[in-house]
């Protein structure tokens, strides 16, 4: 029988009246498990549990929080192969990518375990004689989290870990499409010794559980990762709520990778192919716009095609697979829609874009590469979120920079060049939160800030020490000596 996985509310596992099936996109006959669909009442119970737990947890000592987060980190790292297999089975990333993401989640918890012991404040003299000033950080309160399907363990980890490290209580709603990895993470944390109610998991539809979370008066902050359209609705709901909620949004990207004539061709091709197509292109940091200078353009296109000929698309768990399936039928339909849009706009499909048949039924799509596109086309303006990339030819560096910045997004931006002058200028002038030189636009470290500009991000950065800007609030206290 298919295993049933329940919600966690006030330290107890609670079922629901309905459940959703978690389906393996590499083999649609394989059911990963059935996961309880939470109700509005259960969401309300979870928030109430977090509210009840907050006074004690927010005043708990740094050693207690350190030990719990470190214990969780140790178990995640010890089980990273098992967790990575679960992740790949439910989301469709290759096994190597799944294990890597599980390992990253463990590293994130280790980092924030250390952050529990690195909390600082300031003691300053006032401009008024005999008055002292103390500046401290306190937890923001009850944090609601809504996480996406494309990084089903890393993104919950980089939200939950800092929230707990800084003394907040959490109610998390993971993506309904892939709840398994988040469920496993919450189970690990619960067994690591978290007091009841500090961390609550309510799975289910965003229109039900997510909406109730946004509207709840006792939730003080919302951290959301997902689409731009949904992110705008989240922001509007947080501002409209009473009292207003602190909000952090990580949304889309249409990330450029500039390739100049002086680039190392091998380096540029590897950065482009891995950045655009690996993880099935289902990354907000994917290099979906390849902006290539005329002198290297034809050689770059030819070399990309040769590199793509060696890319294996197959079952995510199979040895030798480079790219797994698209996550589900809905996303596959979106990818195919944009491939047709690019054709209709005049783009030339020089490789891929075809549905593939494999031993097991799944959502297999050959990576698609377009040339003869402009930055005005929809394929260059709108996020596809799949293994689809287009090449835009430019005459010089100045035009390349202009095209790279001509987008409503601003998450990640990259350049391939051997010119120190151009690399330095691009780092300074690229309108993005993260800039890569001779690297893929996708792929970031866990101990540094993550986030973008324009329509890609809103609010404080995630990850690293900068996470405290969202998960804490600053208090300034004056004392007359």
The number of strands is 23
Q: What is the CATH superfamily of the largest domain?
A: Aldehyde Dehydrogenase, Chain A, domain 1
Sum up the overall morphology in one term: globular
Distance between the termini: 69 Å
Question: So, CATH architecture of the largest domain?
Answer: 3-Layer(aba) Sandwich
User: What structural class should be given to the helix and strand makeup?
Assistant: alpha/beta
Regions with little confidence, pLDDT below 50 for 5+ residues? none
Radius of gyration: 23 Å
Structural overview:
By secondary structure, the chain is of the alpha/beta class. It has 2 domains: 4-251 and 456-480, Aldehyde Dehydrogenase, Chain A, domain 1 (3-Layer(aba) Sandwich); 256-437, Aldehyde Dehydrogenase, Chain A, domain 2 (3-Layer(aba) Sandwich). Helix content is 39%, strand content 22%. It is built from 15 helices and 23 strands. Strands 15-16-17-14-13-19-20 form a 7-stranded mixed beta sheet, with helices on both faces. Helix 6 (180-191) links the parallel strand 9 and strand 10 (199-201). Helix 3 (80-91) packs across helix 4, helix 4 runs parallel beside helix 5 and helix 9 (265-277) packs across helix 10. The N and C termini lie far apart (69 Å).
